[in-house]
Amino acid sequence: MKYAVGIDIGGTKTALGLVTSDGQVLSKASLTTDLSLAPSDMVDKIAEAAHRLLSESSLQQTDLQGIGLGAPGPLNTKLGQIAEPPNLRSWWNFPVVESFKRHFQVPIVLENDATAAALAEKWMGAAKSADHFVYITISTGIGAGIYSHGRLITGATGNAGDIGHMVVDPSGGDCPCGQRGCFEHIASGTAIAREASSLLQRPVTSKEVFELALSGQNTEMKQLVDRVFGNIGVGCATLINTFDPELLVIGGGVSQVGEPLFEAVGAYIKRNALNPSGRNTPVVPAALQQEAGLIGAAALIHTKY
Ligand code: ADP
Ligand code: ZN
């Protein structure tokens, strides 16, 4: 049996797992990403947790094929560095691969977290038999991993698929990135909660917005949700027109709303994708959800991508 450690570094938490080459998660752990710590101190804590996973399974570093790291973009996989992720400010320009090398003498690979999650869905999830698919995560932000012709499309520096900053509706307000109406500025969980809180004049979560809208209790929330689903449809139609995938996989917290989202996106695509076969692109939920990040990070070691 071959082993890898997959580490999914996030703005709020870092998940890691010991994963076999047939995709079994033998053990896992989760740490709060403490942004008040220097990133190298946080890496020390993560490395310590990884060593613990190994010893709990009576394994040693020499049993590892490698360590896969998934991290939010923008990053620079060529340099092994975090670049400028908005939710990981204290990590800007941090050489994360080099920092982990202080603790492990095995190959260490870094990719964008959504790209890694897409690879997880290909390896063990909803896209096993697809050679061409796009994985979209709609959560705090929006990101994608693109798999085409049997390979991940990572781009020159690992930033391909950052669809959160594809402009979907220029009238949709100022995105912190400097553009207007970016996909994640108008359709992420954060965006839904922000817009609803402003309409209702009280703090609301995106989950509550869906409950109010879909139970028919609040027409204002229903209109908001319809607009968001429409915008997700626009984003998906653009991805279909750009990559001609055979499948779209949607994950992330917002996708938990389930059927209403998938139905609305499917209907939008049916009307608006340009090529006739693209109009019938299946849109399915991610199979791995919470574990996609760490399984995908381990897949960076266990699979050829
Ligand atoms: P992260 O962005 O840290 O990866 P998640 O994928 O859980 O975390 O996404 C969090 C976002 O998803 C939040 O905006 C949250 O409000 C939203 N969310 C989580 N669960 C649900 C749900 N069941 N229905 C709708 N929105 C949800
Ligand atoms: Zn933007």
**What's the helix count?**
9
The strand count comes to: 12
Structural class given helices, strands, pairing?
Answer: alpha/beta
Alpha carbon gap, first and last residue: 20 Å
CATH superfamily of the largest domain, by name, is ATPase, nucleotide binding domain
- What pattern of helices and strands is seen along the backbone? EEEHEEEHEHEEEHHHHEHEH
Mean pLDDT: 97
Mind telling me the C-alpha Rg? 19 Å
Distinct small molecules: adenosine-5'-diphosphate, zinc ion
Q: How is the main sheet built?
A: 5 strands, mixed
How helical, in percent, are the residues? Answer: 25-40%
Q: Strand order across the biggest sheet?
A: 3-2-1-4-7
Domain module tally: 2
Determine the CATH topology of the largest domain.
Answer: Nucleotidyltransferase, domain 5
- Low-confidence spans: none
Q: Architecture of the largest domain in CATH?
A: 2-Layer Sandwich
User: What shape does the CA trace take?
Assistant: globular
Strand content: 15-25%
The top level CATH class name of the largest domain: Alpha Beta
What does this structure look like?
By secondary structure, this protein is α/β, with parallel strands linked by helices. It folds into 2 domains: 3-111, ATPase, nucleotide binding domain (Nucleotidyltransferase, domain 5, 2-Layer Sandwich), CATH 3.30.420; 126-286, Nucleotidyltransferase, domain 5. It is built from 9 helices and 12 strands. It has a 5-stranded mixed sheet with strand order 3-2-1-4-7. It has a 5-stranded mixed sheet with strand order 10-9-8-11-12, sandwiched between helices. It has a two-stranded antiparallel sheet with strand order 5-6. α5 runs antiparallel to α7 (219-243) and α7 crosses α8. The structure holds adenosine-5'-diphosphate (ADP) and zinc ion. Zinc ion is lined by residues 165, 175, 177, 179, 182, 185. Adenosine-5'-diphosphate (ADP) is lined by residues 10, 12, 139-140, 189-190, 193, 205-207, 210, 252-254, 256-257.
